[in-house]
Amino acid sequence: MNTIPEILSKQRTFFKSQKTKDVSYRLSLLKILKQEIVSNEQAIYDALKKDFNKPEFETFISEFGLVISELNLVIKNLKKWVKPQRVKASMLTFPSRDYIYKEPYGSVLVIAPWNYPFLLAIEPLIMAIAAGNTVVLKPSELTEHTSKLITSMMQNVFPETVATSVEGGVETATELLAQKWDYIFFTGSVPVGKIVAKAAAKHLTPVTLELGGKSPCIIDDTVDLKLTARRISWGKFLNAGQTCISADYIIVKSSIKDAFIEALKTEIIKRYGETPKESPDLPRIINRKNVLRLADMLEESQIVFGGEIDVDNCYIAPTILNIPDLDSKIMSDEIFGPILPILTYDTEQDIENIIWNYDKPLALYVFSKNNAFIEQTIKKYSFGGGVVNDLLIHFGNHRLPFGGVGASGMGAYHGKTGFNTFSHDKAISKRGNWTDPGVRYAPYKGKFQLLKNMFKYFS
Ligand code: NAD
After folding, report:
1. Inter-residue contact 190 to 166 (CB < 8 Å)
2. What is the pLDDT of residue 454?
3. 143 C-alpha to center of ligand 1: Å?
4. Where along the chain is the active site annotated (predicted)?
5. Handedness of CA 118, 124, 129, 130 (dihedral sign)
6. CA nearest ligand 1 atom 23, residue
7. Is 459 a residue whose pLDDT tops 70?
């Protein structure tokens, strides 16, 4: 087996051969990848089921289906996306024809998390290959079955010189990060994001950091409570709350808090029954360590629904908490589990005091029928992206860039934005030779006013 420096060195040599610049070569790889994924559909469901009891339905809607849509989009549009884009020339460069060339960065490192272990590994891989890069992908060590499957699928599709999966934990990631890459795409937690940024800075390597944080969900008193509770019961407990853009906590108008909690309990029971542990539709927590982390967060909380924990079976029931303190454990870190604290507000100032207590979140949700309140909320707070009157769905539109801001990350992807992320925009001005205006050439005497007029007129 090749060592990490050997893999990288071979990928660099292959990249220099210019083969990945050939769009038909990229397309042929992406088509084989699609075939491989389609023929492994059941194996993908099985792997995620084994890793954390993820239901096939959820694996389809939030991993397999999204990957196939992204592949279809790229296969359909890649020839168009790679064309140098002509932009209007400036009169100051006259005569010229100006273009943006899409250039692959070169050797790309992708590091993936465990919570959507197939989607969040394969989607960046697709876009990096589409843009003409070579890729080393490190899937998460916590989803053993999915990561093994990804490795074997990549072996079936790509020569190692183009793309390969390197499995392993922190030690492997550390060794990967010690190499000099042309681009690093990381999805994971804020603390590890900082480690990645530091390693990248050493070589001035550009990075995309897709991180997490505490994403709020504001509910005012104009909403349809039943519909709101129904949508939140879906978005919060999908993947057992282990979603980077899950609603971390609710801020509800105090006058409707009790009614909202009742409506939410009803919806949770409709989704998962009176004993959610027996529901085939509720995934498990990824491992014991995370169950214990969540159990510790629950200490001193006022549980108004759920709260059952079975450490050995990595189970935590959908749980609702009543008005925790901002300095409680549950409100100090990203929850990343099926626990939903409910906070209340009476005034706009109350909402500010809560949201501005935290770093800029990855997502923000607002449920309301009041357009002025909705627009004000969207404009006032800084966050990666969000939804009005639902959770998560902005992730599903490839025309919307997906990414964080501030501590929730930098850079974005999805759809064409993903292709752009893995491409350097190379600016090219092609100068015409049929004339050569003399104003810029010395001696400058007598030309200064003309130059000033030109700037005034054309810029
Ligand atoms: P994590 O940061 O622990 O791990 C992510 C990856 O980094 C894994 O492949 C892991 O092996 C590697 N890693 C872990 N420690 C490392 C170290 N010291 N040095 C180098 N690499 C290291 O995150 P996770 O637990 O896998 O995922 C959960 C986190 O990811 C949550 O915070 C969640 O919000 C975030 N997340 C963000 C997005 C997004 O799109 N913004 C998507 C999914 C998850």
Report:
1. no
2. 84
3. 12
4. 210, 244
5. positive
6. 188
7. no
Name the phi and psi angles at 210, rounded to 5.
-100, 100
Strands 134-138 and 107-111: parallel
For domain 4-211+409-424, the CATH superfamily is: Aldehyde Dehydrogenase; Chain A, domain 1 (3.40.605.10)
Q: Domain-by-domain residue ranges, the chain?
A: 4-211+409-424, 216-403
334 Cα nearest atom in ligand 1: 32
Token pair of 109, please?
A: 């490192």
Superfamily for domain range 216-403: Aldehyde Dehydrogenase; Chain A, domain 2 (3.40.309.10)
Q: How far is CA 429 from the centre of its chain?
A: 34
CATH topology match: 4-211+409-424 vs 216-403: no
Is 58's C-beta closer than 6 angstroms to any atom of ligand 1? no
Segment 236-252 mean pLDDT: 98
Q: How far is 3 from 255, CA to CA, in rounded Å?
A: 61
Q: pLDDT digits over 149-177, tens only?
A: 999 999 999 999 999 999 999 999 999 99
Distances (CA, A) of 143 to 47, 192, 241, 285, 316: 8, 18, 17, 11, 19
Cα Rg of the chain, angstroms: 25
Question: Torsions phi, psi of 87, nearest 5?
Answer: -120, 160
> How far, in Å, from the CA of 256 to the mean position of ligand 1?
36
Which SS3 state, helix, strand or coil, does residue 183 take?
strand
- The pLDDT tens digits of the residues spanning 412-421 come to 999 999 999 9
Residue type at position 368: S
Q: Which two tokens stand for residue 333?
A: 């870190």
- Alpha-carbon distance values, 88 to 80, 291, 349, 420, 451 (Å): 19, 57, 47, 20, 21
